[in-house]
Structures are given as structure tokens and as C-alpha cells.
């Protein structure tokens, strides 16, 4: 019988793969955009005024950026080491797509890749030229030089699809990724957690970002429990890892929300996350929904979580940036 031996949750934001001296490259976009924060929309200047008592000027120095970048890289290295120590046979990857695969107004709410292999292609120069500020330097963090082809796990993926369908989940089934492109949520896991030594993997897509068909937080928890059931009834003797990518709060950091999420994770209470109003899960913060299936599954298994680190990486006086979280769950006897 298959068993889940490891789970990992990691942030994947561009700042993780950008030198600290470039952390402010995204600020022009921050200034242009409207931001969700504590139940409403804000302009950049409104956030500067609202948060002026938080001494954020101390957070946006090169010295602080360098320290926090180093802390994040150390945490990622720790997660990668745990993954390779555990040596799972198959990985189920939970992530979102940000118009990388689905660029033509067709965005499934939930999807499963069941093909033999999936391709992580380098961007063409024309596409790089049209990327938002600060994104191009981060591309090597999720796309290796020359691109890559990764193995799928078709038999287990089809089993997951059938089980999820039986449990009332209408999944988009993909035997190839549109455009032969791996979204950065999955590419980050392949590059930085699996270190380009990618085992057979099953990407599960969750539309966290785009209205009108974002699955609710509660639906994401139910998805995780259904995936757990499917793995447990898979007759082959394989060791499975669940990997989630994205979050925590961004593009405006809210440490209060992050701490509530981490408390729910350490207490094994996914309801501590799903109880947030759905408006909380907007913009980049929506990627916490990629973690929810993993939290639900590992809580059901009774496996405690280990917080490797939490690093709020601010880049402006408005509190914009990316709060980075790094967590793992490993079952007793999970080492190979």
C-alpha cells in the first residue's frame, strides 16, 4: 500500500531567487497596483500612511534584505536536504498557475496532470521583455538553463483523478501542460527542493488567483483529504511526498495572518486557516490555499509539523513584499 512519508510547504516568491540588491525592483509595480489588506483595497500611498507606525524603514535596508535572503536560502537548503534524506518515490505537487499555462481566458478551478512527462521551457526573449519589473532576474529559480523535462506518474495520477471524481471533484485532466510550460509554483519545487533531480511527480493545479472560480479554503481542505484517501487505497508499495508551493502573505505582508496560519499548522488544525474570510485569500496571499490540502492531509494523519523558518521580506514602506514560510512534516520512519 502507498503511504505518505513526507510533506513540505515552501514559499516560492521571486525575492527568493533575486539578489538582495534587487529586492526593490518590484516596487514600481507595487506603486501602480491596488492591494488587498485587512478586508479592503488600498493604494500604495494609503498603505504607507496606514503602516507608518510599524517602523518599516528598518525593514527596507540592504543589510536587512541580505540577512533575510540568507535566512530564506538556509531554510530552502534545509527542506531540500530533508527531501533527499527521505527519498520518496513519487511527489504530488500542489501549486497555482499565473497565466503561464492558461493564457487565453480558460482557467480551470482544479486540475491534475496525468501525462508521462512535463516540460519546463526557458522563456523566449520577447516574453522576457514583457515581464513585470523584477521578474526576469528570478527566472533561474524555477527554470534550469536550457529547460528540463520531468517525469510524471500517470498510473497514480489517473487513480487520483478517478478517486477525486468519485468524491465529487470535477477536475481538469491534463496529459500535457498547455504551451509545454511548467508554472513557477511547480518549477520552484523541482529546482529548489528536488534540486533538479526530479522524481516522478503529479502537479495538482489550484486556481488561487483568478476570479470567478477560485475554490474556497474549505474546498482545498477537502481536496487534501480526498488525495490522502486516494493515496492510502493505492495498492502499489510506494512512498509519497506532498509538496506545496506559494504564500505566505503578499504582495502586502500581514504578519498577524501569517502567525495564525503557522499556529494552525503546528496545532494540526486546518480549521484555523479555513476560518479566514475568503477575501483574505486574494492576490499572492491566495497561494496559502496551495498549502491547505497538505495541512489537511498531514493533520488527518496526525503527523506534527516542523517550522524551519518564517521570514517576512519587506521591500517598501507600504509593507509590500513577501512573507516566506518553510515547513515540513515527516512521519516516523520516514528516512529511507
Key words describing this protein structure:
single chain; 336 residues; alpha/beta; Protocatechuate 4,5-dioxygenase, Chain B; eight-stranded mixed sheet; two-stranded antiparallel sheet; 12 strands; 34% helix; 20% strand
Tally of DSSP helical segments: 10
Model regions low in confidence, pLDDT < 50 over at least 5 residues = none
Question: N- to C-terminal separation?
Answer: 16 Å
CATH-defined architecture: 3-Layer(aba) Sandwich
Task: Give a concise summary.
The protein has 336 residues and is an alpha/beta fold. It has helices at 27-32, 44-50, 62-86, 125-129, 154-166, 184-193, 217-232, 255-267, 271-274, 288-301, and strands spanning 3-10, 35-37, 40-42, 90-95, 110-113, 117-120, 148-151, 172-174, 201-206, 239-245, 305-314, 321-330.
Amino acid at each position: 500500500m502507498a503511504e505518505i512519508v513526507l510533506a513540505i510547504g515552501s514559499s516560492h516568491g521571486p525575492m527568493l531567487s533575486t539578489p538582495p540588491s534587487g529586492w526593490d525592483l518590484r516596487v514600481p509595480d507595487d506603486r501602480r497596483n491596488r492591494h488587498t489588506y485587512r478586508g479592503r483595497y488600498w493604494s500604495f500611498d494609503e498603505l504607507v500612511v496606514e503602516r507608518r507606525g510599524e517602523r518599516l524603514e528598518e525593514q527596507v535596508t540592504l543589510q536587512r534584505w541580505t540577512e533575510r535572503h540568507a535566512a530564506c536560502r538556509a531554510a530552502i537548503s534545509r527542506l531540500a536536504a530533508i527531501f533527499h534524506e527521505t527519498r520518496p518515490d513519487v511527489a504530488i505537487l500542489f501549486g497555482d498557475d499565473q497565466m503561464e499555462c492558461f493564457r487565453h481566458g480558460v482557467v480551470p478551478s482544479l486540475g491534475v496532470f496525468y501525462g508521462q512527462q512535463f516540460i519546463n521551457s526557458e522563456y523566449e526573449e520577447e516574453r522576457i521583455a514583457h515581464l513585470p519589473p523584477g521578474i526576469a532576474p528570478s527566472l533561474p529559480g524555477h527554470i534550469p538553463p536550457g529547460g528540463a523535462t520531468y517525469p510524471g506518474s500517470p498510473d497514480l495520477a489517473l487513480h487520483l483523478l478517478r478517486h477525486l471524481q468519485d468524491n465529487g471533484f470535477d477536475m481538469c485532466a491534463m496529459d500535457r501542460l498547455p504551451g509545454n510550460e511548467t508554472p513557477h509554483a511547480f518549477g520552484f519545487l523541482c529546482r529548489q527542493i528536488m534540486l533538479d533531480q526530479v522524481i516522478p511527480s503529479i502537479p495538482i493545479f489550484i486556481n488561487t488567483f483568478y476570479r470567478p472560480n477560485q475554490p474556497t479554503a474549505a474546498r482545498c481542505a477537502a481536496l487534501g483529504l480526498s488525495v490522502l484517501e486516494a493515496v492510502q487505497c493505492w495498492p502499489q508499495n510506494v512512498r509519497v511526498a506532498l509538496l506545496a508551493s506559494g504564500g505566505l502573505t503578499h504582495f502586502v505582508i500581514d504578519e498577524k495572518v501569517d502567525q495564525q496560519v503557522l499556529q494552525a499548522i503546528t496545532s494540526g488544525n486546518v480549521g484555523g486557516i479555513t476560518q479566514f474570510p475568503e477575501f483574505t485569500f486574494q492576490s499572492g496571499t491566495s497561494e496559502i490555499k496551495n498549502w491547505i490540502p497538505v495541512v489537511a492531509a498531514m493533520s488527518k494523519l496526525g503527523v506534527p509539523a516542523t517550522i524551519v523558518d518564517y521570514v517576512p521580506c519587506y521591500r517598501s514602506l507600504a509593507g509590500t513584499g513577501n512573507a516566506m514560510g518553510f515547513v515540513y512534516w515527516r512521519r516516523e520512519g520516514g528516512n529511507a
